[in-house]
Amino acid sequence: MKYYLIAGEASGDLHGANLMKAIKKADGAAQFRFLGGDLMIAQGGELVKHYSDMAFMGFVEVVLNLRTIMKNMRQAKEDMLRFKPDALVLIDFPGFNLRIAEFAKQHGIKVFYYISPKVWAWNQKRVLKIKKVVDHLYCILPFEVDFYRSWGMEVNYVGNPLLDAIADFHPDDQFRQNHQLDERPVVALLPGSRKQEITRILPDMIQTAARFPEYQFVIAGAPNFDASFYDTFMPGTKYPLVFNNTYNLLNIAEAAVVASGTATLETALFHVPEVVVYKGSAISIAIARMVIKIRFISLVNLIMDRGVVKELIQQDCNPDKISDELNLILKDSNYRNEMLENYRSLSVKMGEPGASARTAEMIVRQLTGEN
């Protein structure tokens, strides 16, 4: 069968690639066409648009790039109709994907939504639209099931695909040597994958690193940028930079400073104590504070429903406060151990690997009419 997939950011590329791999096992004749990234390309099929041309962060950035977004949307719609897929598989990225879902529904294409939109965070009434335009919805966070069911929508909880990616991870014993890292303990810097967030957050991370000379700070670079982009943030000391190796970096890290997003959960599942940071434009933050209905921004705290990791948002995201928190997680054994104990509880709550396989099998069964 023919599958058209849309993933609009780095995390979606990871989950999309794992889902494609699982679909190929469930459907040996699977054909793919997609908007995504390098990991999805590696699974085969045809790339239509790379997510690096699609990922815009915050209300202001979306407005400023509206012409590009509409062009991408138009291209996706036209390309999908030419491809004539049996299934449209949408991966997170709701602002874009829900509009594509509505279009697909109008043209009789079955819509499968993997990694359900986080409408519980802000515009809960969007569930009504999701019910109209999505045929099958797959949740990856435990608390989402009750939320969607409270709106009368039947959903499938498939577990979290990060567990699959981490279960498949095999550490590189030569990682330190290959990246010329010395013997100092490592602190990982994960500034995100979008240009806007990296530009706002990385300078604070770099200034923080200068205060901890006894530690080696290593930056996880996003694959859609090259080293020269990161060099602009390091006019003085050059910190090591690694690409496509975040899991190997987390595997050896003593602590991490992480931009809010999927990486906060990945860091916790690697049992690395972390501080979560976020900076948006002033207007975006003001709008967000009016409409967002949740207490936390990090997935770790959202899943645990309590403050497990420190969140430094907007003006609190500065070298002084990041340094204070980093000192605690590196040097206060009681504080550090409490966070690690909470991580163990998080792992239990997350369940077992297999989200990609479970979702792929459901999609194929639902397409073929099997029970």
From TrEMBL:
Stored Pfam families: LpxB
Enzyme Commission code: 2.4.1.182
Enzyme type, top EC level: transferase
Name recorded for this polypeptide: Lipid-A-disaccharide synthase
Annotated GO MF terms: lipid-A-disaccharide synthase activity; phospholipid binding
BP term (GO), one: lipid A biosynthetic process
Family matches, as PANTHER family: LIPID-A-DISACCHARIDE SYNTHASE (PTHR30372), LIPID-A-DISACCHARIDE SYNTHASE, MITOCHONDRIAL-RELATED (PTHR30372:SF4)
Keyword Iron-sulfur: no
Keywords noted in UniProt: Glycosyltransferase, Lipid A biosynthesis, Lipid biosynthesis, Lipid metabolism, Transferase
Annotated GO CC locations: membrane
Keyword Cytoplasm assigned: no
Role according to the record: Condensation of UDP-2,3-diacylglucosamine and 2,3-diacylglucosamine-1-phosphate to form lipid A disaccharide, a precursor of lipid A, a phosphorylated glycolipid that anchors the lipopolysaccharide to the outer membrane of the cell.
Catalysed reactions, as listed in the record: a lipid X + a UDP-2-N,3-O-bis[(3R)-3-hydroxyacyl]-alpha-D-glucosamine = a lipid A disaccharide + UDP + H(+)
